[in-house]
Amino acid sequence: MQERWRSYRYVGPAELKAAIRPGSEGHPIRSRADFDRWAAEHAAAELAEPFTFVVDMDDVLRLAPRRSEHVACAAGRPVLSAGEIAFSREGEAGRWVVVEVSNHSTGYCPDTSSWPAVAEALDRAGLEHPPTFTHEVVFRRCPACQEHNIVREDDFVCVFCGNDLPALWNVDPFDERP
Fold first, then answer.
1. Given a cut of 50, is residue 108 above it in pLDDT?
2. How much is the pTM?
3. Which of 17, 60, 91, 116 is the most exposed place for a label (fewest CB within 10 A)?
């Protein structure tokens, strides 16, 4: 993997990362055939719900049931993006397409700028997708109290202590990139 995009380390509760069991990582989707095999293994009711996803450091899309933790889907490793994704069958051929995708992962808190990694992984998997996240989540860490926040309606104020939040992504306190 070349360093094209920012990577995101897990910043959620340590006990969730500690609870990861070997083999719990998400199912890798490298091609359309991988996706079709994966979809065939799931019941229609399950496929009607969104799934947890990550794009791992090898640019591979990994899928897990929605109630899975992103850190387990990524086997505890850093990711290029993480969130939730939903699929639907469309057209006469009934091909699977991505109908919803977000960067909603409170364990990795990826920036909205992680979309290109998601789009490229979906393109490689042969999955049609929206032009960007259908639901963008803006994450910030409060410089005053260090709590992670989801910014709503462009209100960059910490919900925990009331201090201003920075305009730029800053969730990982050890990330030294600009």
1. yes
2. 0.93
3. 91
